[in-house]
Amino acid sequence: MNYQESREYIDKITREIPSVLGLDHMRELMKRLGNPQDDLKYVHIAGTNGKGSVIAFLYSVLSGAGYHIGRYVSPTLYSYRGRMEVSGSRISREDFAAYITQVSDVIAAMTKDGYPHPTAFEIETAVAFLFFKKENCDLVLLEVGMGGNLDATNIIKNTLLAVLVSISMDHMSFLGNTLAQIAEKKAGIIKDGCRVVTARQKPEAMQVIERISREHGAKCTIADASEAEVLKESCLGQTIRYRGEEYEIPLAGVYQKENAVVALNALKVLDELGFSTAAEQKKEGLRTVNWNGRFTVICKKPLFVVDGAHNPAAADMMAASIEHYFKGKRIIYIMGVFADKDYRSVIQKTVHFADRILTIQTPDNIRALPAGELAKTVSEYNPNVQAMDTIKDAVEEAFSLAGEQDVIIAFGSLSFIGEMTDIVENL
To answer: Which of 89, 140, 304, 366 is the most buried (most CB within 10 A)?
Structure first.
């Protein structure tokens, strides 16, 4: 396959093979590929909100310190290949196509032998492991796709550090109906004898994490964001003081203080595990981190913010940031969500800030909720809503409605934010 054919192959699998949790298919697939994942070391990150930000902080610091670091994240906003990177370089089109060809040949043999067809995420994860092994990474930062214990990424054995960001109610149909049940699944990434860093969780989740850590003989460090102080802030970034040191962070959002504290604790543990970074390297890495789409300003007049508030916990965080930065401002929303998310809760937590709401449907995604259906639900809470035909139409309408002092906020699914950013930059 060439690159275009390999992408079409993945898109076809996405449409035809539903997401599943379980490691049986992944074990068979990786065994037939020679188990490349067993030759690598990992920081494995699970939780509900903040995984990508914590990985971005760690990636920036460790790569800046000279380590050859692999990063696997999803979804990505601006480049599909950006989900698999090594020290700042995305997987090449040629390598991706070659690995997809290799994996597809193995899958053909698997299905001929009676095994079920792997999902798109399992295939992408397999490609990532092949890529990271070829690159001979010192360490791989690996983001869980969903849950933890049965996620395709959890086939790994050499977890040096398991990181658990904030855990809240999400993917309940897969993970459970209580916070304790969800925490049990997410803490399934903890391996015997590894180290654990967790954000300070709600009590029912914290109890589960501490119990599972004990059961695996895994020393657990709690990263408590209340120990950090915000010295200055704006919607363009913030400076925090933590344990006597000051850190500049070019990411807005009230939740980024917690993510930075989790990352700093993870770096302290990695110091002890042989991946040491100097104090100035930590500061420089946080100062230069790049992680777009999380309360990110993409235009200043009028102010245009994009944010991946796609579940109730993320909606709480976005609402807190709106209160913090834009109290009293006239706000226009552009909103698009996936049908399988708890979008009604997202609506309830956010719509009261908006003067006008424009709904869109995320293009080319079978999970996307139609704009009309979303507008109908929004209208139950705020009547000033209008369904738009395209993202471009929504952006143009938002700019026509907004004065220079107003704020446009686009949020919901992360999958449309890259396209929206391109549209805004080219207007």
So the answer is: 140
The C-alpha torsion from 335 through 336 and 341 to 345, rounded to 10°, is 20
Say how many residues make up the chain.
427
CATH code of the domain occupying 3-287: 3.40.1190.10
pLDDT computed for residue 78 by the predictor: 67
Exposed e or buried b per residue across 141-165, where buried means at least 16 C-beta atoms within 10 angstroms of its C-beta: bbbbbbbbbbbbbbbbeebbbbbbb
Threshold 0.90, pTM exceeds: no
Closest CA to 165 of 75, 62, 45: 45
Helix 256-272 to helix 279-287 angle (10° resolution) is 150
Q: Distance between CA atoms of 22 and 155, rounded to whole angstroms?
A: 10
Residue 47 predicted with pLDDT over 80: yes
- The domain spans of the chain are 3-287, 296-426
* Dist. CA 250–CA 228, nearest whole Å: 16
Cα–Cα dist 427/425, whole Å: 6
Could you tell me which of 157, 137, 135, 155 has the C-alpha nearest to residue 145?
155
Q: For residues 3 and 316, what is the distance between their CA atoms, to the nearest angstrom? A: 39
Q: Which CATH class is domain 296-426?
A: alpha beta
- C-alpha span between 245 and 27 (Å, rounded): 44
C-alpha–C-alpha distance, residues 319 and 271, integer Å: 36
**59-116 confidence digits (pLDDT tens):** 999 999 999 999 999 877 667 899 999 999 999 999 999 999 999 999 999 999 999 9
